[in-house]
Amino acid sequence: MRKVWLGLTSLDNWDLIKGNQTYAFKKQISYQKVSVDDIIIFYIIPKSLGGIFKVVSKQVTNPIDFSGANYPYQILMEKILILDELLIIDDKFKNYQITDSISIFKNRIRWGTVLMGKDLIELKEDDYDFLLQVMQNEQF
Question: Domains of the chain (ranges plus CATH)?
Fold first, then answer.
């Protein structure tokens, strides 16, 4: 059964991810959590959503040099949705109330602390459905 993930990255690395459809991890433990057919929703630090991808392979033939550090564990993905502009989120983005609607953020005063030090966080399928709808609405 597929899993849904929130993948955290910097703006510089987001550009590489979009252009190469490749995501990478510093730690093998994060890489091992991800499987083919999993979904990754990208959160661009500090407070934006950028797109959604599906994992298609854990075998990368042309590794990408990501900025700022060594990322030896890489996966290939296919695009589900890439936003034309980053979707900046806060406590009450438009009428969506994203931070109140996503399971990992609910009932948190400082929802950003949930993300600190992480590169990958598992989400629920309901979170995916909600975020996909929000992001599709932003495309038009």
Answer: 4-138 (3.10.590.10)
- Say if CB 49 and CB 87 are below 8 A apart: yes
Per-residue pLDDT of the chain (140 residues; tens, 9 = 90+): 899 999 999 999 999 999 999 999 988 999 999 999 999 999 998 888 999 999 999 988 888 888 867 788 999 999 999 999 998 876 454 545 666 677 766 665 665 556 666 789 899 999 999 999 988 987 64
What type of residue sits at position 90? D
Q: What pTM was estimated for this model as a whole? A: 0.86
